[in-house]
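[recover] target loaded
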């Protein structure tokens, strides 16, 4: 055990390690990361006691983390981002549901040649929320991130009973492009599922972007969904018009909420949830740590290992490793990290509460080969970590 660990009343096993890492995107799920790290630690310290708690920050992998923590996995065939049916998973434990919009409306559901920045829809995400209501959920953690969409949550609201209409009184088409001033004339939210009035809907996200503007949903995230500069401009204008139309249905708060942190999350689905479903925004990692039972697991640990595919500047702004490290530091626990690529200085790591980071790139500098062999490389990295800290 490293010097500096504090064990009180014998309650903490000095060999007990908590692995609370996110996925290595494109190579390992959070569950696989935990398995590989555990194997590496045991290769040098067979007596180590490992507790795995895969984590997520609200984006893709959120449901998998909930299932690994004991939630039951549910599946539903819903409308995918371009209208084709997809099988989406969500999770339930007691009266708490975890819904991940990326399961229904995520970018990973589309091949690069099928991206549809102007017409992709969040309709399937609304179908997942309705399934959670039907199952009796009283608290819904709605993880938003990794979307293929920029429709302001319009599709989601329509799946839940809203009507977005043209000047002729006909429903507008799918996607953010259909929210333009030439298409969308009015919004009728009277048919929205009334059960949202008695449900705690938590918008869990790792981003705090507003709906529109240079830091908005279209400008910042549209290009990764296939949007050209012209598409970005059209989508931004359409989302601004959408907010104006919704203000006619719910009042001036619709315009003020466009600037609320998280409104621009996942192509603006955060905005739709805030305005029409009574959601409240919270940083995704904070919510997930509570739901997954991180605090009691942390209390049992002497060392915490966190990580994700790339530890970089984005990590420090609401990503899972930063949230894990902050909570562990508050509890007086040492934290080290594993990653595929490390782009943070030792000082930056220390300021985030991470004592040291171990990168796969140290063993395999070629990014493609590193991703292809991420599992074995991670075991080797974890063995090195074990020798240093256990």
């Amino acid at each position: 055990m490293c010097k500096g660990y504090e064990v009180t009343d014998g309650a903490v096993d000095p060999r007990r390690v908590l692995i609370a890492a996110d996925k290595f995107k494109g190579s390992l799920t959070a569950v696989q990361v935990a398995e590989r790290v555990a194997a590496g630690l045991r290769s040098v310290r067979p007596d180590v006691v490992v507790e795995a708690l895969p984590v997520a920050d609200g984006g893709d992998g959120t449901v998998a983390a909930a299932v690994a923590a004991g939630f039951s996995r549910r599946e539903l065939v819903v409308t995918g981002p371009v209208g084709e049916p997809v099988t989406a998973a969500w999770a339930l434990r007691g009266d708490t549901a975890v819904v991940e919009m990326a399961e229904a409306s995520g970018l990973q559901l589309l091949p690069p040649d099928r991206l549809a920045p102007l017409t992709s829809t969040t309709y399937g995400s609304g179908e997942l929320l309705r399934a959670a209501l039907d199952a009796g959920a009283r608290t819904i953690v709605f993880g938003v991130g990794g979307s293929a969409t920029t429709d302001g949550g319009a599709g989601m609201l329509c799946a839940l009973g809203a009507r977005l209409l043209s000047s002729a009184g006909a429903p507008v088409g799918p996607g953010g492009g259909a929210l333009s001033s030439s298409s969308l004339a009015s919004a009728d939210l009277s048919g929205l599922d009334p059960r949202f009035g008695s449900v705690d809907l938590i918008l869990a996200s790792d981003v705090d972007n507003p709906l529109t503007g240079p830091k908005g949903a279209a400008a910042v995230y549209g290009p990764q969904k296939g949007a050209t500069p012209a598409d970005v401009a059209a989508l931004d204008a359409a989302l601004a018009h959408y907010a104006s139309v919704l203000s006619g249905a719910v009042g001036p708060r619709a315009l003020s909420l466009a600037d609320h942190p998280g409104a621009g999350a996942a192509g603006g689905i955060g905005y739709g949830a805030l305005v029409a479903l009574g959601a409240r925004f919270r940083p995704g990692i904070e919510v997930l740590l509570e739901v997954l039972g991180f605090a009691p697991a942390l209390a049992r640990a002497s060392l915490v290992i966190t990580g994700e595919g790339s530890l970089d500047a984005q990590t420090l702004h609401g990503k899972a490793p930063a949230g894990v490290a902050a909570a562990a530091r508050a509890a007086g626990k040492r934290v080290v990290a594993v990653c595929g690529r490390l782009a943070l200085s030792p000082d930056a790591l220390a300021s985030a509460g991470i004592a040291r980071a171990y990168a796969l790139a140290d063993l395999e500098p070629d990014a493609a080969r590193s991703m292809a062999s991420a599992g074995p490389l991670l075991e080797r990295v974890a063995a090195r970590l074990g020798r240093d800290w256990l």
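[recover] notes: Residues 133 and 195 are 7 Å apart (CA to CA).
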